Amino acid sequence: MDVAVFSPAKAQLTRLLKTQKAAHLAAGPLSADERIAWLDRVIGLMVDHQDDIVEALAADFGNRSREATLVADVFAVIGSLKYARENLRDWLAPLGFETQFPDAEARVEYQPLGVVGLMSPWNFPFNLTFAPLAGIIAAGNRCIIKPSEFTPASSALIARMVASAFDESEIAVVTGDAAVAAHFAALPFDHLLFTGSTSVARHVARAAAENLVPLTLELGGKSPVIVSASASVEDAAARVMTVKTLNAGQICLAPDYVLLPEGSVEAFSAAASKAVATMFPALKDNPDYTSIINQRHYDRLRGYLDDARAKGAQIVELNPAGEDFSQQEARRIAPTLVINAPDDARIMQDEIFGPLLPLRTYRGIDEAIGYVNDRPRPLALYYFGQDQEEERRVLARTTSGGVTVNDVMSHAFAENLPFGGVGASGTGAYHGKAGFLAFSHAKSVYRQSKALEAEYFLRPPYGDGLRQFLASVITK
Known about the structure:
The protein has about 475 residues and is α/β, with parallel strands linked by helices. The chain has 17 helices and 18 strands.
């Protein structure tokens, strides 16, 4: 398949968008069989390039766990694509509704939007590029992808993979720096999906607003963990540390701080230390422990620790083998607990995106709820406990993109649940049917009745019949 070499110039991006929009209009909506064939192409890419994906991510990160990559950036993607493939015929079926007249017809048909722009991040570049294609393709759209410049090897591989299976009029990839991303966000797409930081999302939203492009923003924020007095502290710590160390905590859904009942910090810390030692007897050269993506983010995380320490926080490094991390090339940071950092510490204000975990205490569950509610709404909230009344109170009184109870991040793997944020953590949702709906236009279609009442209902002169009808229906 001949593949054009894309220029980062705005004119070239505009040409590509026009090409896809013209192809969409010329071909008309893709049939269910065509959509399934496209999904099969993407599944084939993930299977055939799994080793290439592992190598590209290892090159970009310095070290990236092979198994973690296969789970998060290959297996999970294939699951999303297969789920869409199995269900899209049902999703496509029009929805019928009752009407006032028995021979009238009211239905909703799901129509492709056209061309969707997809801006994917660096932390899971293959997952967050190819998994959204499940909903985009199931809805019958074409797509232009802009992967992150922070993972150049992965971005180049994504471009080669897509070009090997799709014509540029179907799905295409453009690579480049922040200037290219700015031009990309300003294009008049039919929909734009951005996954990344809240700060960058503000720029994306402003650019998209110029063309009134509808947005799905999957962001992040400071996702809290509330550990109840009724919870098993050891189980909670093990599950929290599993996700906090996955990809070295560089996950939008990673727990950002833990709220513990007074008197349980020591027990949680001991359990967290035990969990880390079980998973990683050593860290510095462990192929299962991922590096920080680049020097800028490494320095940012070290700065959080220095700032918290200077402001009185207790820093507890979970370093099972007692290794010296001061001399290394892989930018690894040991999992670290930050106990009682004050609210003005940077680690309590910014999304951490690394293996650092603040611990704070609360006296009663309402204090914990209030602490969460005093901050921007997070992408996720995690509650550990066996008190169902308290659990219901937490769920009812807090607002977050999603919730997992007695685990961390599991709700994101339930493909039939919508996934997205709320407020500062994002807008809109995808995954499963929610993705199909997000990238579809629900078009209302009404076929009028042949009854005389339908024809003359609004036509003057208005008589006693209409007045009597109005009097009978305008009631309390």
